[in-house]
Amino acid sequence: MNPAREDSRSLEEDETRRRRRPVMPEMATEGNGGCDARDWDEEGYRKSILQERELRCRTVFRTAFAPSQSPNPETVVVASSDGAVASYSLASCISATSQPMHVDKVVNQKTLPGPLLAEPLFIIKGHKGPAYDLKFYWQGEECLLFSCGDDGHLRGWNWKELLNSDIHGDMQGNSLKPILDLANPQHEGPWGALSPIPENNAIAIDEQEGSVFSAAGDACAYSWDVETGKQKMVFKGHADYLHCITARKSCHQIITGSEDGTTRIWDCRSGICTQVIRPEKNFKSKVSSWVSCVATDTSESWLACGTSTGLSVWSLLSSECIFSINSHSPVQDLLFDDHQILAVGSEPVLTRFSINGAALSQIKCAPQSAFSVSLHPSGVIAIGGYGALVDVLSQYGSHLCTFCCAGLDT
């Protein structure tokens, strides 16, 4: 399991436990004001407590806008900590915001409306254990949805087949199989013993080379041929497990970020590391940090690195740091929006930075800890995180809708 995610989640869980205590359901009262225990529903109460706990603890680790012909976003896909891969109609979620909410929370002994519990277009059991990342892969007219997770598998799903699946008849996705199922290799230890299969924390795509890449828990990155399903390359050099990966397609490179505090740039054809970047050296803080997320702009000339202690931007042409800033909370995901940077982390805030490091705006978001920020070409933003929440914002920063993702058991 990814310690960075676990640390932020455990803090949120402790705080949530302190703030929210389950309220005992009222029992029928007799005329004298006493309680009638004969109407007590023990099983119903137990089920409600378990469902509330499961909702509080479930996390959306990745959001992704599905490709479509429409200029406006239609569908958002999520990867969750219960291993689910699910898709949601944005139009349905937005229209439902004016209706009564479905999930309640308890504050000061009072039940208040919570976020909409949205019904997915489809939901499948993508992985055993948490699903950490999602990426779309276009090949001609065929579109694949790749997912990865704690089970060490990288799976490719036919997107049209997923959309046509019946969530009511196939809720667990038992009969819906991926067309690609790639498993990380096990390493042989002393006396011939095999190590556990390392988890996959992130995915990168390069359609030009027909490759999909994974960042794994054994400190290695892997390259797979999408057509044959065979492993093409192993990238070794990090000293600790990988959090993130992105492809620099114009240069046939990948860029990885690790728990060891470094960002490395790799040549995809030789597997050699061509450059090591140490973002923490640009911070005044003496606390050791990990690299949690990396992103390049559309020109692939600029690199943004988010760490447990801050954010830095680098010129890939000159290998120089453009700016670096400290933050009192980890940056857990970021991306470029033209010449600006959107970043989220372990606080419920979406921050927009200029390319020079100035904070241009901050917008409060629903997840108390956000692990994913996604941007549609229209400017719509989706933020996913703790509590199974997804917050959707317009290009002007207004909240279009906030919904809670259904689990496999709901």
From TrEMBL:
InterPro entries with a match to the protein in the record: THOC6, WD40/YVTN_repeat-like_dom_sf, WD40_repeat_dom_sf, WD40_rpt
Biased composition (Basic and acidic residues): 1-17
Annotated GO CC locations: Cul4-RING E3 ubiquitin ligase complex; THO complex; transcription export complex
Pfam families, sorted: WD40
Biological-process GO terms, alphabetical: mRNA export from nucleus; negative regulation of abscisic acid-activated signaling pathway; protein ubiquitination; ta-siRNA processing
UniProt keyword list: WD repeat
Renumbered residue ranges of the record's region Disordered: 1-38
The WD repeat ranges on this chain: 235-276
Entry similarity comment: Belongs to the WD repeat THOC6 family.
PANTHER family: THO COMPLEX SUBUNIT 6 HOMOLOG
Name of the protein in its database record: (wild Malaysian banana) hypothetical protein
